[in-house]
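Support reply, case 0932

Customer input (verbatim):
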Amino acid sequence: MSARSTAVLAVVGAGPCATGLLERIAANAPELWAETRKLHIHLVDPYPPGPGRVWRHEQSALLRMNSMAQDVTLFTDESSTLDGPIRPGPSLAEWAAQFSGRGPRHTPYAEPADPEVLDELRTLTGTDFPTRRAQSAYLDWVFRRVLAEMPPSVTVEWHRTTATAVTGPPDGPQQVHLAGRAAPLTADLVVLAQGHLGSTPTAEHRDHAAFARRHGLFHLPPEFSADADLSGLRPGEHVILRGFGLAFIDLMSLLTEGRGGTFRTEADGSLTYLPSGREPVLHVGSRRGVPYHSKTHYRLQGPPPPLPCHFGPEAVDGLLAEDRPLDLRRDVWPLMAKEIGFGHYHELFHAHPERTTMPWPAFLAAYDRLDWYGDDMTALVADAVPDPADRLDLEALDRPLDGLSFPTPDAFQEHLRDHIARDVARRENPEFSADLGAFLALLSVYGHLPRLVASGRLTARSVADDLDGWWHGFFSFLASGPPGFRLRQLLALSRAGIVRFLGADVRIATDESTGTFTAASPTVPGHLTRATALIEAYLPVPSLARTEDPLLRRLYHEGAAAEEVIADSTHTHRSGLLAVSPTDGRLIDPSLGGPHPRRIALGVPTNHRAVAAFARPRTDAPAFRRNDAVARTVLRTLSATGAATSRGARADDGSWVDLGGLTGWAEEARNRW
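Our regenerated output:
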């Protein structure tokens, strides 16, 4: 076909993942796309483009982000290391400031239709934790801005439905089949960017559901909080919740404030919960037995740490040069921990030098040459940092209940309330801003780990136990906790008897004789909790074999998509993640024996192991690098591929019809821009 024919890209998914890809396509198009050739992009998603399913407006106003407004962006900045151009844009806080006159207008300008969201945005500060509805409005605007920045030769069209299959030869056009429509979309290239996906229940969850049906109990498998049906829980009913992370915090809010309860602020700043009488009683436990650490509520008090320092490209190169299988905990973690420690002590010495005994250059000279777990490092820190509260103990942070047991449940309630109160106070006191330095170093470590993982040098056992097991949980525990006010609410609910803490390493069982779920923990030896409801308070784990997504399910069962399997002489690990090529995200197709040239996947379900979090400004976020690389691959591939079809689709009667959708929207947005 002529090089001037229209090229067609189909993107399955229209949420933040797809929006980030479109932003990078718009940014790279001036370099990689001929102005004389048209590109038409189909977006397929039953949920609104920009927010998508998870961040859609239609959810409870009680649900909030776990990031401050100033820490959320979808735009690259001067810290971004990309092959494509940097195109700065406002953070959520900077975008919201326009509605109160505290900041410039950002085009295309439009006020959110929901008056409650608009009121929130008018008072939102950089250190506030916004509602998810406010983030939904920001994502909607980002999407419209991306449309406005597309070159005139690029048009975008949204199909408000579900993609059920993708077919087509590896050397020819692809057909994307849509629910409720006879004619498929035809595209030169398909990108799968569905984001968070549900999974069918595991065998354990199916057994618990069957037990609940036999005894007339309530059971909820892992579910997205905004989609969970909690109406079956009765007032006063005892509920066991397994999981103490963000999903639990959401459920806690929905089952208390969401049922009419309120919090009263006392003279000393503490909260008292005033129940409505419609709340169930929540018994919560997990592996660690404690909630995720509270998010910090302050800025660095000293200069930013110069990251990376001990775990960056040079460190990864050094590990790969050893040409041997690597164990993450033995070979890699000591460097990662030293990097996190560097961020912590850099902030402590620069912002709070009165709590140290030597100048930073002297400390750093010794720190640089010592091993993190060596006795000399321990002695250095003890000498330079007199107060143990100022030292970084990653193991104590990771498992705060290890080695502890309590004679009665009430004794444990008191202990954990004290633990939570101290955690919140520390994370809101800038005197402990070294914790934020450690957090920023943790983000840096996360950003440099994917290249090591992609090398395939970690043993199968280490990927299973250390990477997908321990590291993922540890990162989330430290970096993805709730805002402090949520933990203060948790304390009030505990004092009111609405929430009861179960302990660490909680074990869930069923008792046929009494028709109840049970929970036990070694934290309170000999104590057994009985309940008539069980909630798995965590998000569905990505699983290609059990995915609820019809397109991925069909590809997998037809042998056109593969679950990541890592095997060596000692272990085989099936991660449940969709296997893609590490360089450009092309879908691994077992029927082809390698990557499919016309299918790409990115985001949470893939074995790139993206953490489901928004980018923080000026942190060289890995998501931007990934989106940029995929966008450049897409544009180069489409430039070299003959057009699949003209811009149109065959109607049910066999005639060709022009596609409307977002094309006019894009042109309008471009004119407003």
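We compared this against your earlier run and they match. Two observations from our side: Confidence is low (pLDDT under 50) at residues 644-673. The first strand starts at residue 7 and ends at 12. Please reopen the case if you see a mismatch on your end.
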